[in-house]
Specification:
homotrimer; Rossmann fold; 2 domains; 5-stranded parallel sheet; 4-stranded parallel sheet; 12 helices
Chain lengths: 337, 337, 337
């Protein structure tokens, strides 16, 4: 895949070579994200960070990634005041907003909305989430995290063992991750979910027909064993027909230090797409894991910045200019990164 | 008019020479808005983009124009959390906020609020819309679009023929445009509106006493013929006493490709201040015109960036420094601009 | 106090030497805030301006201070759309957001929230206000204003006379200011408030035991005399049990030009933490004082930018690099600053 000038709308656009290209560029971004060096490669460029469905974390992550490349961000954080709410078409909104920026990130609750917007946009568009459908940079940062964590342990994605835990029926992050993992070879999937929230069978069939192993279960005891990665998700209550129905499943499957110690191998990496709901009725990933060095959830969000920087750099064709425009950071930077 | 350090509150401030100066500077901004070149002339300057009445399009357009000159933007997008909502006067708000920036763009639903704010501001203020009253950069971008479109056809504003269609009673954009056009010579105005939404007679009298021709009608058939420009507007429902009353007029006058083909000359330029309401009950400017090369509505919004850059550059006295601080763009830029 | 890499959570962190260091750096910032010179010392650095409780003035002031040092700002302006509202812990929010920026300013209505956030943050955090608790940069800017105003009159904080007027029971700004003033020597405090809104006795005892003089009264006539500074506050209605109760106290104590002329010495400086409520039922600081040169309320907000620039520069250890990276401003700047 040639990234220059392309929209990024779906994980379906990626093959193994293009994933590896993104990861290679993301690796190069580490000194900038760690505030060891500053680059100004996109000085003068403008990101349109158009979040018609609010999401603080994702919005700030994209904006920060753009700023770290030297560019400016113009943004919107809701739909109420927008022309879309007054009957404007996605076509018109896209034609107008694409005159204001060099690249647009768009999030909107309506499935397919970002693709419709991108079709009319005069600049590249990255899907920042369109309802239950796609959020490709999340899937890429999850996969990138898996890759980095496994590499640290001398392992690789090919041949690894992953346990996916929780609401596998509605979890957009899990679905996209399964699609990307399906590209690799010989992965063992352990799917752990309540009966009613199992991964849709189309995903399971795709994985099996690509040569992967898939085992389903509904309790942690059997499912967690022999996993390199445990990927826990929250119950996607906004996708259920009623809040009451969602409530039935919240907190059914929980990972805490005791469960981890009892069932997991010592270096099993713990992931979660965040936010984790720490309220008593949910609490699917317990705070008592916070000091467990295998808890990779904040390395995931850190990696999100690298992946987004890489996508920006590839789409705008500046990946090869980053270092040439760079200099050391001249201010205090926290060692804790 | 000497722009340096001035507030821009009303189209009444402009004479023909000052309009032409704005347009000349706007022309110089084209390579920057097209992302062929980058300028950093306002590097270090701060725009206070104070939208106490939300408007995504106008807010982002002003912010983008400032960023394209190299400056930073601080902004607010509503009134609920502001001190204004807690009983603070416009005087206090202006004294405070003008300590934070080099120039302020302000939008507020209350008529006259921006002038009141500007009187207390310590930095130049541009009116980004104060209710039914004024939105001078919209009028300037409309006029600039008319000028560029006509020039492309070997015509000029002097002597041109324009049809204004829709809610001419409440349309702020139409009123301001009429004031600016009145400065020029020998224009034929065709005013097409429901009987109850006619252009206020004071505007008609001004135009006639300045030597222009004005003809009124209430249907497209007669009114659209022999126009160089057709300027369509939406029903300004927020200005009516009730939504029901506004509903009576929505969609009464519609321009679509069939109407265009039947009544318009082949190169008649189509304009609209946007947003256009594409819902079935409104739809005053049909999507079937989207491929008509005479549809200039997105050139209008693009031109808005140029006009706002020009106003910033003139007020802050940097129009002559733009090119000296510029360099070629080093990233991929879409050809579709 | 060594500022490098520190959180600023409370005025209790400051001793006299560290206050004087902040003020010295703030003085150096004057040419930049006045737009005489531009510095780019933080070019490439990102501020996370996280206002989970909205506050236009404070948010824009911090953002502007950061921009004036050359850095970029990513921000949030409410809590509704944030993960915090979906059950995320302050710990998680802090771990995530501190991966996106070099320094975070946080405001949240919950007392103690910012300290909890800072404990988990990987970058320095400044408390931008946590409910009734602390807002240290406000206290510093108040003290800095007192210092500059007195210096202009050939006086000093040591030995000065200050009248504090209004809701002294709930006023966070007054409490913090009393703590900072307590560090100095031999100050005369005149506390003027309704009986029910007196300064909590713990503050009075602290001041007295540090050798200061404290006199309480409930009317302006006696209290205002012989003051170098009059610091007026609004009734903090959000801290009362009911709006009705707060209503009883609004407007009980008012300063206007007539009162000023009758009771104050000719050069008594008038301060207020703003916003002032100009509605008839409140109006504790009358607009008829706007032309009184001793009205320092807008010098206070201007000084806020200097203090915030100084805190940023000290925490990130760039105070000594400011001038080296600077150049003259090249655009029009209003004389009225």
């Amino acid at each position: 895949m040639n990234f220059i000038g392309q929209h990024i709308l779906s994980v379906d656009q990626f093959d193994r070579a293009s994933i590896e290209e993104v990861f290679r560029v993301a690796d190069n971004m580490i000194p900038y994200a760690l505030r060891q060096r500053v680059t100004r490669v996109l000085e003068g460029a403008i990101l349109g960070n158009m979040f018609f469905e609010p999401s603080t974390r994702t919005r700030v992550s994209f904006g920060c990634a753009w700023n770290l490349l030297g560019g400016e961000v113009r943004e919107t954080t809701g739909i109420k005041a927008s022309a879309l709410a007054k009957g404007e078409s996605f076509y018109d909104t896209a034609r107008v907003l694409s005159g204001y920026s060099d690249l647009i990130v768009m999030r909107h609750e309506k499935m397919g909305s970002v693709a419709e917007f991108a079709a009319a946009s005069r600049v590249p568009v990255i899907n920042g989430g369109d309802g239950a459908n796609e959020h490709p940079s999340q899937a890429l940062l999850d996969l990138y995290t898996i890759s980095r964590e496994l590499t640290d342990q001398g392992k690789a994605i090919d041949g690894m063992r992953i346990a996916l835990v929780g609401d596998l029926r509605f979890g957009r992050a899990v679905h996209s991750l399964c699609k990307l993992l399906g590209i690799y070879r010989n992965i063992s999937f352990s799917l752990i979910s309540p009966e009613a929230l199992r991964l849709p069978s189309s995903y399971i069939e795709s994985l099996r027909s690509a040569g992967h192993t898939v085992v389903e279960s509904s309790d942690m005891a059997s499912g967690l064993q022999q996993a390199d990665i445990v990927y826990v998700t929250r119950t996607q209550e906004e996708r259920f027909e009623s809040a009451d129905e969602a409530q039935r499943y919240k907190g059914l499957l929980r990972l805490n230090q005791a469960v981890y110690t009892q069932y997991c191998e010592p270096n099993t990496v713990i992931m979660h797409p965040l936010p984790r709901d720490t309220r008593a009725e949910a609490n699917e990933l317990d705070n008592d894991l916070n000091d467990n060095p295998n808890l990779a959830i904040f390395r995931q969000t850190d990696n999100g910045v690298l992946i987004r920087m890489a996508l920006f750099a590839l789409i705008l064709n500046v990946a090869d200019q980053i270092d040439a425009t760079s200099r050391p950071v001249n201010w205090y930077t926290a060692k804790r990164f």
